[in-house]
Design brief:
7-stranded mixed beta sheet; 2 domains; Rossmann fold; 345 residues; alpha/beta; two-stranded antiparallel ribbon; single chain; binds nicotinamide-adenine-dinucleotide
Length: 345
């Protein structure tokens, strides 16, 4: 990943009177103290112990809520723990939640903020690459239930998003690659050649695409759904990776697999040719990701999980490439999907 871009960039998520900035670059978290609303006297910092980032929050009363590492934190138990903790901390509707972490933290903290007192404000300080290019922006919050990933959630836009690239210094190498899964997705959404750009430019290019999709379609009625490219299979794979004894797969890795699978499905449906499938493989591998379905995945159970996915209206729904670019394709015969799964190496 190229470095060297020291300037900060600012991207606006344009949502009328709920518009907000995404500040990207080294030292961007220094802006936080200015962004915090004056009337917010209490700040509930939701984070994880291993992240260990301290921030200047001025003279506010601060309480830190450490949630567990991994998808296990995105459940009703930790959601309840958080909102009850907010009560104990005497948080009012003027106070603020600060989500300092990756997508797990922003999904959970955002949901807690969205339901506490029927909604209080949240600022996302994205500390993983995946959160910077995707999860922290757009207002989707979520927890998991045993029946599936992200099945419970709300739309609750943050007040601001901070992507301080200095925070990436402590991010484990494998997590950087996971972020690249989502970055690979943007190659098919208008940014085909990010890989050689300096890091701040790569992040801001992804954020700009996401911001524009969110501005046009906040609640995923149409265009925003294209951001789920690669995610139908990814979520089904991740649903098999819950629990302490289950094999683990990171979201970005699952998305890489899902992108290539979606291309193969599109080929099966005669929407694209071999060349486009090869391009998908090439993009995914150029981000250092394995394009193949991991051997531990129970392929025979994937279709059932996909049928339960919240985006399903009838039959199976995938975002697929085609002559006119990406589109949401519904009503796909599950047997066709099964046949592509069986063919997958
Ligand atoms: N809401 C959305 O729009 C959206 C979009 C994409 C993904 N997601 C969700 O995001 C989650 C994945 O996010 P993720 O990849 O950030 O995973 P994550 O939140 O689990 O973070 C990855 C790991 O890196 C650690 N970490 C994060 N920042 C660190 C730092 N600066 N230094 C050291 N360690 C650090 C975390 O503690 C964790 O161990 C999934 O639950 C997915 O469903 C949500």
């Amino acid at each position: 990943m190229a470095v060297g871009d020291k300037a900060q960039k600012r991207v606006e998520v344009d949502l009328g009177d709920r518009s907000y900035p995404v500040l990207i670059g080294p030292g961007a978290s220094g802006e936080l103290v200015e962004i915090l609303p004056a009337e917010a006297r209490r700040v509930a910092v939701v984070t994880q112990e291993n992240i260990g980032i301290s921030l200047d929050l001025g003279d506010r009363m601060v309480k830190v809520f450490n949630v567990p590492d991994g998808e296990e934190a995105k459940n009703f138990i930790w959601l309840e723990w958080l909102v009850r903790g907010f009560v104990e901390f005497s948080m009012t509707r003027s106070d603020i939640v600060l989500a300092v972490g990756g997508g797990v933290v922003s999904d959970l903290a955002g949901l807690a903020a969205s339901i506490y007192h029927r909604g209080i404000r949240v600022i996302n300080v994205a500390t993983s690459l995946l959160a910077m290019v995707d999860a922290a922006i757009g207002g989707k919050t979520a927890i998991n239930i045993p029946e599936g990933k992200n099945l419970i959630g709300t739309f609750h836009q943050p007040l601001a998003v901070i992507c301080d690239t200095d925070h990436l210094q402590s991010l484990p190498e494998e997590e950087l690659y996971c972020g690249r899964g989502e970055m690979a997705k943007y190659a098919f959404l208008g940014a085909p050649d990010l890989i050689d750009l300096p890091l701040v430019s790569q992040i801001s290019a992804c954020v700009s695409i996401k911001a524009s999709f969110v501005s046009q379609d906040e609640r995923e009625g149409s265009k925003r759904a294209l951001l789920n490219y690669g995610h139908t299979l990814a979520h089904a794979i991740e649903a098999q990776a819950f629990g302490p004894s289950s094999p683990r797969i990171k979201h970005g890795q699952a998305v890489g697999v899902g992108l290539v699978f979606a291309a193969r499905l599109a080929e099966k449906l005669a929407r694209i040719g071999e060349k486009e499938v090869a391009f998908h493989r090439q993009v995914v591998t150029s981000y250092g990701l394995d394009p193949e379905i991991p051997a531990w995945v129970r392929r025979d159970e994937l279709v059932e999980v996909m049928l339960r996915d919240k985006k399903v209206k009838s039959g199976l729904t995938f975002v697929l490439d085609g002559e006119d670019g990406l589109e949401v394709v519904s009503d796909i015969d599950p047997e066709v999907v099964r046949s592509v799964l069986d063919l997958a190496p």
